[in-house]
Amino acid sequence: MGEFNLASLLQLTLNGIVSGTAYALLAVGVASIVGVTGRFHVAITVSYTLAAFVAAWLGGLAGVPFWPALLVGALCAALAGILMEAFVYLPLSLTAMRLGANVFLMTFVASLGLSIVGRNVLALTSLMNPSLLISGFNNVGLNVGPATITTLDLTMVVTSWALIGAFSLVLSLTSLGRMIRAVRANWQMSLCVGIDPRLIYRVVFGAGSFLAGAGGIFAAAKTSATPGMGVVPLFYALVVAFLAGLATPPWLVGLAGLALGLVQSYSSLFLPTQWTPLLVFAILFVFVALRPLDVRALQRRFIRTQRQAG
C-alpha cells in the first residue's frame, strides 16, 4: 500500500494511463474480431507474441531500426490472424455445421489449440535464448513534476491512441468501415447490398491482429519477448472488451481500458501491490452479476455469421 500525497497520486495516474492504454490497444483488437465474426479468438496471443519476436529478430540480427521493425512485426501479426481465419476457423466452422456439431465450441477449442501450438513453436525457435530483447529504442526517464514516465511508455501511449483513433475513423467515415458495421449489425442485409462477409472477416482479423501485434512489441520492448507473454494481457483485454461491449466503437473500448488501468493503479493506495489484480476479478464479477453474458445469444450470432460466410 502506498502513501497518499500529490506526488504519489500523479505517479499512480501516469502508471494507470500506461497500463490502461496497453489494455485498451489489445482490447480493441479482441472486441473488433469477436464483435464482428463471433469467434472467441484467444489465439490472438499468437499474433501478439509473434510480432514481438519478429521485431526482436529484425533488430537483433539485421540491425533494423525500431519503427520499421515494429511495422514489419505488426504486419506479420496481421498476416497470422488472416491465415488463422482463412485456413482454420472458416473451414472448421463450415465442416462443423455440415456435421451438425457445436460450431462455437469447436472453433473455440481450435483457437485454444492454435494458441498452444503457436506458443510452443515460438519457444522452439528460441531454445538458445528464451527471452529476446527489442533493440533500437533509446529509453530514458522523463520527469513530470514529482512523477516519472519513460520515453518508451510515452511513445506507447501516443502511438496506441493514434492507432485506436485511426481505427475509429476508418469504421465511422470510410466505406470499408460501413461494410464492417453492416456485417456486424445484420449479415443478411449486407449480403443484399453485395458485401462479402468472408472478406470482411479477414479484414477484421488483420486489423485486430495488427493492433495486438503493435501492443506486443511495446510490451516486449519494456522487458523482453517470451513465448508466453500474451496470456496475462489477453485476460485484461477480455475484461475490457466485455465491460465496454463487443459492438462499442473502438475509442470507447479504449476509454474502458484506460479506466480499468487507472482503477487498478489507484487501488494500490489501499491494497498491497500483489493483490491489485484481484480488483479486476471483482470488477468482472460485479459486471457479470449485474449484466450476465448471454452465451447462447453469442453462439446464435456465431452460427448465423457462419451460414452467410459459407
Q: In terms of per-residue confidence, which ranges show pLDDT below 50 for 5 or more consecutive residues? A: none
**Largest beta-sheet details:** 2 strands, antiparallel
List the total number of helices.
12
Helix content range of the residues, please?
Answer: over 70%
Query: What proportion of the residues form beta strands (DSSP E)?
Result: under 5%
Shape: globular
Would you write up a description of this structure?
The protein is mainly alpha-helical and 310 residues long. The protein has one domain. Helix content is 75%, strand content 3%. It has helices at 6-37, 44-61, 66-99, 103-125, 151-173, 175-185, 187-192, 197-222, 231-244, 250-266, 276-290, 295-309, and strands spanning 141-144, 147-150. α1 packs antiparallel against α10. The longest helix has 34 residues, at 66-99. It is globular and about 60 Å long. The model has no long low-confidence stretch (mean pLDDT 88).
Question: Concise description?
Answer:
By secondary structure, the chain is mostly helical.
Task: Give a topology summary.
Elements: H1 6-37, H2 44-61, H3 66-99, H4 103-125, E1 141-144, E2 147-150, H5 151-173, H6 175-185, H7 187-192, H8 197-222, H9 231-244, H10 250-266, H11 276-290, H12 295-309
Antiparallel strand pairs: 1-2
Helix pairs in contact: 1-5, 1-8, 1-9, 1-10, 2-3, 2-4, 2-8, 3-4, 3-8, 3-12, 5-6, 5-8, 9-10
